[in-house]
Automatic annotation (TrEMBL):
<dbReference type="InterPro" id="IPR051454">
    <property type="entry name" value="RNA/ubiquinone_mod_enzymes"/>
</dbReference>
<protein>
    <submittedName>
        <fullName>Peptidase U32 family protein</fullName>
    </submittedName>
</protein>
<keyword id="KW-0645">Protease</keyword>
<dbReference type="Pfam" id="PF01136">
    <property type="entry name" value="Peptidase_U32"/>
</dbReference>
<comment type="similarity">
    <text>Belongs to the peptidase U32 family.</text>
</comment>
<dbReference type="InterPro" id="IPR001539">
    <property type="entry name" value="Peptidase_U32"/>
</dbReference>
<keyword id="KW-0378">Hydrolase</keyword>
Amino acid sequence: MHKVELLSPAGNLEKLKIAIDFGADAVYGGVSHFSLRIRSGKEFTMESFKEGIDYAHARGRKVYATINGFPFNSQLNLLEKHILAMAALEPDAFIVATPGVLQLAHKLAPQIPLHLSTQANVMNVLDAKVYYEMGARRIIAAREISLKDLKQIKAELPDLELEVFVHGSMCFAYSGRCLISTVQSGRVPNRGSCANDCRFPYELYAANPETGTLFRLEEDPGIGTYIMNSKDLNLASHIKEILDAGAVDSLKIEGRTKASYYAAITAKAYRMAIDDYYAGLEPSERYQEELNTMQNRGFTDAYLVNRPFEKHDTQSLDFTMQMGTHQVSGMVTEDGGHFLCKYTTRPGDEAEIVAPWDAVLSPYENEYGSIFERDGRWYVRFNKLVAENGREWDAVHSGNVNPIVLPGALPQYSFLRIPADGIDQSPPV
């Protein structure tokens, strides 16, 4: 049976490994300013990106290299060198956004499959056919597309792979075609440096051009001024509907600049949803429970299963970000014997363990604390906090970079989390 691919963001080498460990079939990321996420592109070097590719391939997973920026004429010679250098790393595909770059990549590296970025805004059979004939083996559809349109494209072009976004930040503008950041800060969204100006609060004014009078409009409390702030996409509860359509080959999660915990939890939640579908199980509330542990802007199922004019709940007007139900308190190091504090931990504290996909945990108890199972979940309780260098702490906080000894071995990149009850969860203003 051909199963749908789960594709996760890889903002750096650590996040690449975490996404794969937590259930992703493939990851995507890039090196340099030719990637549409400049910040994450700087997180990788050619050497570390190659290490990530090797890590994925050793586990039977794939890596797609993003070369999806929009180059100027002055950059074309450098772009050619970059394509050849990236091809030498042997990724599983290039993600490109423009017809010219697609043709150039096909000419310089014909052995590398080409995926067309969502920035190309493919919405119909005509455009899909043009790019397919130019060499695109997969199209990442525009986020405004519907399942009905995807089915029509697949019927016309059955050998063309189709990829859709199922989770992550939503852009205020049509398929990311936004100039607000360019106008206000000179940072160009479609060249990878969006400043997320749509997430800011704005004050509204009324001007009288005849008198030059300017009035500030007062708003009722609670209405908010985040007038362009889109909620986050979340289609975890629609996986059955999407896969039943038979048109989608890859489910994509947005978020190369998001935290490592985001890479883990999104991969885990959608891995559960996909596996449950193929096992014939009913959708579980657990998907949303996991996704709600993260910070978010509120969730929407957006446009894939609804038409845009049918949706009136895609904006979050009174805040830009809210805390999730849980706070990350630690992350297990690669040696599995220690954790790095991400919040605050004291002797006597108890935290839930979020382990990678299919990890098998074992109970432990010693002078440092205990690892145990309760109600189908695993926890760690600390008797004392001892650093790798032997120093004992009364408490460790997020600024403490000393690895702290665990009571027993845990899988690398496991997370420790605590309920957010008691933590100030008031939305930022």
